[in-house]
Amino acid sequence: MAEQLGLDLPSRTALGRDAFFVAPSNAMALALIDTWPAWAGGKLVLTGPVGAGKTHLAHVWAAVAGATIIAASDLGDADIPRLAQGHIAVEDVPAIAGDSKAETALFHLHNLTLAEGHTLLLTGAPPVARWGLHLPDLMSRLQGTTAAAVEPPDDALLAAVLVKLLADRQLTPKPALISYLLGRMDRSFAAAIDLVTRLDAASLARKKPITVKLAAAVLDKGTPDA
């Protein structure tokens, strides 16, 4: 079969339930997403490193619950009463630490959403205690929220993530390439995202397929045009 050349095609990130790879590192979080109508207090926090799958899980939940997803950094200018009329997912809450307008908006959104009988999903990389929020009343409410941590990936999950990231860019890797990358990359979701981005850029720049040889050059030089 001919090698697949990199093409400058739009990247389409698959965020459906079928595209979520279940592993011991994320099974607990997925199980809680699946039981969302029974969340204690009507809310749940997802934590874990960048690229761990928090956004993917938020989209899985939103599709089932009919929820709205909003970045925490957009809350300051949002219509909070309107958002509170349905289930809501707020992503990357630590990003608003110290932003009094956004923190106050989240505080009101939290209270109004639950008062209306809807559910609230919040995400952030570190544990809630390290989100750095300055509003005491907001922190007190979030610290008592059930939390599920999405742990760093094992080899099986990391391999699946690499395949998915490449597929999102409409690339189909050979097994030998995935094995090669797994043996030489940092063990994190963030590293997988960065590596696939650099591989795709190198493939486009050189007009060559993503092969073990190209991967070796990218890993050796650390730049897309290695």
Please list the strands of the largest sheet in the order they lie side by side: 2-3-4-1-5
- Categorize the overall geometry: elongated
Describe the main β-sheet briefly.
5 strands, parallel
Q: Residue-averaged pLDDT, rounded?
A: 87
Cα(first) to Cα(last) distance is: 26 Å
Low-confidence stretches: 1-14
Radius of gyration: 20 Å
Share of helical residues: 40-55%
Proportion of residues in extended strands: 5-15%
Query: Structural class, please?
Result: alpha/beta
Multimer state: single chain
The number of helical runs is 9
The H/E string reads HEHEHEHEHEHHHH
Total strand segments: 5
What does this structure look like?
This protein is α/β, with parallel strands linked by helices and 226 residues long. It is 43% helix and 9% strand. The chain starts with 26 loop residues before the first helix and ends in a 5-residue tail after the last helix. The N terminus is likely disordered.
